Amino acid sequence: MMSAQKVVVPLSAVLALVLLACVGYVFAPLHYFMLVILPYLCGVIFIAGFIYRIIRWAQSPVPFNIPTVCGQEESLHWIRQDKQGSPSNYLQLTWRMLLEIFFFRSLFRNSKTEQAGQGRLVYGGNQWLWLGSLAFHWSLFVIIFRHLRFFTEPVPALVIWLTELDGILQLAIPTLFITDFVILAALTYLFIRRVAFAQARFISLPSDYLALFLILGVALSGVLMRSIFRVDLVAVKDLALSIITFRPSLNLSGSVGLPFFIHLLLVCCLLAYFPFSKMMHAPGVFFSPTRNMLNDSRRKRHVNPWDRPVRVHTYAEYEDEFRVQMKKAGLPLEIDEAGNK
Amino acid sequence: MYDKGKVILGLAIFLCLASFPAWYIVLTGKGDYRPAPVLATSENQCVESKQYMREYHMQLLNQWRDDAVRNGRAIYTATDNRTYDINLTGTCLNCHSNKAEFCDSCHNYQGVAPNCWDCHNVPVMGK
Ligand code: HEM
Q1: Which residue of B has its CA nearest to A46?
Q2: Taking 60 as the threshold, does the pLDDT of residue B127 lie above it?
Q3: ipTM > 0.90 (yes/no)
Q4: Is A145 in the pocket of ligand 1 (CB under 6 A)?
Q5: Could you point out which of A96, A195, B14, B36 has its C-alpha 20 to 30 Å from the C-alpha of B116?
């Protein structure tokens, strides 16, 4: 595919979804489908697909002990071990995994190699991707956590507390959230990185852009809904509560507007797409043998679960079988017919 | 399946987190709670239409504040040409005199606590 197409196709797909949400909004008979059936359907696809993918992964054997270590392994007591880089027990491993999950430690080690003039290679760090993706993921987490106020009653104090912390700048009314800025900026950076750098552009697939555009669409529609095209949030919460209590009803205290239809449809598509997309890297990190294994292969034998019992034919057996012939041919024997070495 | 115990534990954690709202609402038993803001006024019309107020009252208040504090305006002309004194306590809370059962009932439901009342007065309810 040409690189422009790789961007345009997924972009059109997301725009088509926005259009579809408008259609669903205009035709009242579709409201029940858009606001009730679709969320349930996509919720089920998300959870079932997620579990299915994980069980498939758990069924794959790990033939070798392949932790990607980056430091001194456990050795003699006077050689200092790099406990994070080369964990040899589960405590160290848990620490390494936590740093990976919460701070993307291995991405921080991202390096670049550039040619500086005549055949001179220069190696350096490249932490921009790390920064951008950390900013993006943490904002996403905070935003989703803040959304719990639509799904809980009474709203837990922790949710209110985080919401206030996030809105601490008290810019404008309704307060602009720090994470809203950060997620939009980070997503923009992640997109620009893909199109501006030749190498990233070359390996990017339409599915990479689709995930980006879907999330960007969700975030943008959310921010616009909050700051400009407001909807009746009390009605939104009525709907959300009716759905999670499994007593769905469109008998709300007000009507939810078009921006909410768009936001919700994009979220539903994101959820349904999630288990079949690269976004499964979220649970995937737990299943990465390069991250989740101990560097203890010199101490403990890693048995390849793929191994079948191999039928071997040892040299001793071979000699037993051909001893007479070998003797006749004058070949040296380890054990002669009399049984002497 | 390899590492069955760990995988099932992980999946159980995922399911607990993903279904948090569903079981939390069962625990609190408030799934059917809906706020019922008490109007407490004999007037039959708000500053703007009801739907507009539900969606945009915070932005209207923001505009009122800027008008009063920055642009020195004291009167707001509504879409239907009626005029209102720009005053949070004196106008909004004159009609909606029961802040706790009006403003707060919605705001608690939404988990927002506007800080306006740190400085602005809440009229004491007359008996
Ligand atoms: C992947 C999941 C979702 C993401 C990433 C997301 C993202 C956002 C963002 C960035 C905002 C801007 C304001 C803010 O940060 O609070 C927002 C607002 C909003 N979202 Fe979502 N959203 C998601 C799911 C949902 C769901 C499932 C609902 C259904 C109840 C929803 C309803 C809303 C509403 C009503 C607003 C407006 C909030 C306001 O005006 O204060 N969102 N969303």
Answers
A1: B18
A2: no
A3: yes
A4: no
A5: B36
B11 in reach of chain A (CB within 8 A): yes
Which amino acid is residue A162, in one-letter code? L
Among candidates A292, A337, A336, A323, which has minimal Cα distance to A62? Answer: A292
Residue nearest to atom 2 of ligand 1 (CA): A267
Note whether A233 contacts B3, CB cutoff 8 Å.
Answer: no
pLDDT at A168: 85
Residue-wise pLDDT for A264-315, tens only, equals 999 999 999 999 999 999 999 999 999 999 999 888 988 888 888 888 899 9
Q: Which of B113, B35, B60 is nearest to A253 (CA)?
A: B35
Instruction: Please state the rounded mean pLDDT for residues A324-335.
Output: 90
Chain B residue numbers touching A154 (CB-CB < 8 A) = 28, 30, 108
* pLDDT tens digits for range A118-152: 878 888 778 899 999 999 999 999 999 999 999 99
Determine if the peptide bond prior to A174 is cis (ω within 30°).
Answer: yes
- Check A152 against B25: CB less than 8 A apart: yes
Top pLDDT among A340 and A135 is at A135
B24 touches chain A (CB under 8 A): yes
Interface contact B23, partner A, CB < 8 A: no
Between CA A311 and CA A328 the distance in angstroms is: 28
A116: left (phi over 0), alpha (psi -120 to 50) or beta: beta
All domains in chain A, ordered by first residue:
3-303 (1.20.950.20), 311-341 (no CATH)
- Please give the number of the atom of ligand 1 that sits closest to the Cα of A260: 35
How does residue A254 score in pLDDT terms, banded at 50, 70 and 90?
confident
A305 Cβ contact partners less than 8 Å away, ≥ 6 residues apart? A61, A62, A63, B2
pLDDT tens-place string over residues A39-86: 999 999 999 999 999 999 999 999 999 999 988 999 999 999 998 889
DSSP B92: I
The average pLDDT across A87-111 equals 92
Query: Which of B2, B28, B31 faces A61 most closely, judged by CB atoms?
Result: B2
Q: Contacts from A103-107 at CB under 8 Å and sequence distance 24+?
A: A103/A134, A104/A130, A104/A133, A104/A134, A104/A137, A106/A68, A106/A291, A107/A133, A107/A134
Q: How far apart are CA A231 and CA A332, in angstroms?
A: 93
CA of A311 to the centre of ligand 1 (A): 61
Neighbours of A268 (CB within 10 A): 22
Q: What is the mean pLDDT of residues B74-85?
A: 91
CB-CB neighbours of A259 under 10 Å = 19
| Mean pLDDT, rounded, for A160-173 | 87
